[in-house]
Amino acid sequence: MAKRSASAKIWLGLVTCLVLFAGMVWLSHWRGSASLKSYIARMMAQGERFGIDELAPPPAPNDTNFGALMAAANRLRGHAFDPAHFLSLDFIGPGQARAFWLGTNLAGSGRTGSATWAQVAKEMESARNDLDAIHAALRNPAATNVINCRNLGKANVLAKRVIPQWLACEAILQLHRDHLVGAQDALRAVTALARLHPNDLTLVNQMIRVAITGLAFDTTWPALQVPGWTEPQLAELQSQWQQLEVLESIFRSNRLVLVKHAGTNLVGITTK
After folding, report:
1. What pLDDT shows up at residue 262?
2. Alpha carbon 254 to chain centroid distance?
3. What is the three-class DSSP state of 262?
4. In 3D, which of 79, 91, 82, 133 has the Cα closest to residue 111?
5. Are 100 and 108 a contacting pair, CB within 8 Å?
6. 8 Å CB contact between 160 and 138
7. Relative to the CA of 148, which of 72, 173, 200, 221 has its CA 20 to 30 Å away?
């Protein structure tokens, strides 16, 4: 009887602990729900908007150049040559890097090896039509492109990222040839790509813009090591960078918050 009584006490204790634990979980959930309702009510009183129908931006003009841009990018992806393997800075010491265009060959990363300048020139020439189409599409980068905020679909990340890689490689080749006008055209295009669609407030789009901006910076730095730039050329490069705004777009994108409450998906955005 003593053993049965001890066993009963143990089970009673376990059940009591489970009941207390379940009660604490329920209480925490109830408090969280009440806090969320209070927060939503307070934000709505201050002008906050909730719900995709309220937050979806008004229809914007379609970027008529975007289709041509992506078509050229997809064709470039079909090339065996991958510029991405040749765009890593060659660090030769702490805080020191060798400019791409100074090498006897264009150094590659990992097991890729290097490419001769003749090989690079041949690859750029084979892609000339697509590169020209990209330059033309980026002369006036649009601020936005029509997106369906209710069904964003899949972003063509790989196709978009291949464009700055080819443009950067084009700029490096022109720098090696000491053709500053051609290098400036390529730099102008890659910074224009970083400025493309800043008002498309999706996190993926802003992440791609940040990556493109980093590549543009890594290409512009070696370019500035080349002697012979004129003051007007340098002023234009500076102007291109001054037009590039990334942090504010990222901040605006991160305001988009998904709130799930009582089985209903609510989207809130801080407009302040």
Report:
1. 34
2. 13
3. coil
4. 82
5. no
6. no
7. 72
Give, for 258, the enclosing helix (H) or strand (E).
strand 256-261
**Residues listed for the chain:** 272
Q: Is residue 89 a contact partner of residue 97, using CB atoms and an 8 Å limit?
A: yes
Tell me the whole-structure pTM to 2 decimals. 0.71
Backbone angles phi, psi at 24, to 5 degrees: -65, -40
Query: How do beta strands 264-269 and 256-261 pair?
Result: antiparallel
For the chain, 272 residues long, the average pLDDT of each consecutive 10-residue run is 65 79 82 82 76 62 86 93 84 75 79 86 96 94 72 64 94 93 95 88 82 90 89 93 76 48 38 38
Task: Name the nearest CA neighbour of 100 among 237, 229, 233, 219.
Answer: 219
CB 69 within 8 A of CB 90: no
What count of other Cβ atoms lies within 10 Å of the Cβ of residue 180?
Answer: 18
